[in-house]
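Bit of a strange request maybe. I'm writing a small parser for structure token strings and I need a real example to test against, not something I typed by hand. Could someone generate the tokens for this chain?
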Amino acid sequence: MKAENLIVFSQIIDLIKEKKRFLITSHVYPDGDAIGSVIGLLRALKLLEKEVYPYIPDKIPNQFLKLPGVEQIKDKWDGQELDIAFVVDASNLERIGEAVKVLPSLIINIDHHPDNTLFGDINLVVPTASSTSEIIFNLVKGLKIDKEVATVLYYGLISDTGGFMYNNTSKESFKVASEMTEIGINPGEIAGKLFYSIPYDLMRIYIDILKNTEIDKEARLAWSVIPIEIMETKIFQNNTSSLLDMMLKIAEVDTIALFKEHKDKFRVSLRSKNTDVGSIARTLGGGGHKGAAAFDLPKSENSDIQDTIRKIRNLLGGRF
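Reply from user aminoacidic:
Good idea to test on real output. This should exercise your parser:
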């Protein structure tokens, strides 16, 4: 670990010991790493008998609702007075939605996105980390930790590494996973809940989406559109992680784009086996990692999904 990170770790630990009331928040459209980071840090602070208020102003996707402690995350704010805010797994303050309105004066930013804007008063940003959950584990093991903390952070770790298959997996990822196992987590059980527990009705929706997926074999690009009437169903609730993994398994494809329709925009998720989709997303107004990124496409009379696909093709390196 770099010396500067050790200094920041020490600063954060001192503040945790000193202060009493903490907000923990993360980005809207929360994924496994965001939720695992929030719950893991929540539980670790609770072990120190701190007052903690976890708040994500968005729905928690169904696939994460069985995580221990997830029911404590609030999507509405009830006006608590706070000492410190932990903003985790968010590259900028715009990503946390309505939570930006309730931040106290002291912000600790913990993240692993390479395009993080360093918005915190204290910034613990480690772009080489596989996940924010990995960073938080290394932080809280210097305080107090138990099996439940390690379990939800392992969930975030394997979620963001795709079960150690994505190219953000590192030697440190395996080291952290080993330490979590020593604490007593059940890796097989956690992986089963994440990767092998899609409800049948949701699988049927995935199958319909996959049937309508388009592929450009020359560009090695696949894309699909999820209409708003599916996005807003109770069974779906933005559960796209497994769908993205399915699309990325297509042998003829290196990069995928999933257009998710909302009331005022399309949220476009990009994934790739070998291409830096983070740079593509940043060019199109978004951000993210080399293998996983996203951007927003505003809905208007002029918005054109096919035009966006043409832009992605060009950014992939050729005019197809």
